[in-house]
Amino acid sequence: MTDTSIPLREPAKAAFLAWLIPGLGHFYQGRTGKGWLYATCILGLYAVGFYLGSGKNVYWRWVSPFNSDKFMFHYVGQFFVGLPALPALIQATIEHFRPGANLLGGFMAEPPANVLNALLLRGKTYDIGLIYTTVAGLLNVLAIYDAYEGPAYGRGDETDPEAASEDQALAAQAGGATR
């Protein structure tokens, strides 16, 4: 539906803000309940995943997507968390154009193979963290869409005053019959 029950402020800007920091686009639109829900759930899931991966599971590598051994499929999902995952893209870009240079002491830079191997040998926590951070980004895609389009109304969800009064009358009759 194109007509929403609440006025949405600049949907494109709200979608960008929702990508930048999950929930921010909803706060911008005045939908604070959804803003808190999205911010808490998405950022919480991302933070737990980042912790489980010892901060080494969010990174990007500039390679062809057709090179499936080296392409970072998980970062494609993590990217949509926005600002929390953006340092990985910045680090990879700096490393790609100026090898050996890094920003922020290597925070979210691609870890060496021996570090990744050591994390994988400790158990499944690294893999679980990788999944959590990726799913957080994919969930934020839905939040971004909600910030852009507004609340979803399906067929039959529209408010019709006549139908609502008929439903209330039927509910009152049913309530009287059960007493």
Unreliable runs, pLDDT <50, ≥5 residues? none
Main beta-sheet strand count, sense and barrel state = none
Order of helices and strands: HHHHHHHH
Treating each run of at least 4 consecutive H or I residues as one helix, how many helices? Answer: 8
Q: Based on CA inertia axes, which overall geometry fits? A: elongated
CA radius of gyration: 23 Å
What's the helical proportion of residues? 55-70%
Number of strands: 0
Mean pLDDT: 83
Strand content: under 5%
Distance, first to last CA:
40 Å
Class from helix and strand fractions = mainly alpha
Characterise this structure.
The model has no long low-confidence stretch (mean pLDDT 83). The longest helix is centred in the C-terminal third of the chain and has 25 residues, at 125-149. With 179 residues, the chain is mainly α. It has eight helices and no strands.
Brief write-up:
With 179 residues, this protein is mostly helical. Helix content is 59%, strand content 0%.
Could you list some keywords that capture this structure?
179 residues, mainly alpha, 8 helices, 59% helix, elongated
Which helices and strands occur, and which strands form pairs?
Blueprint: H1 11-20, H2 24-28, H3 32-52, H4 73-78, H5 86-97, H6 113-121, H7 125-149, H8 161-178
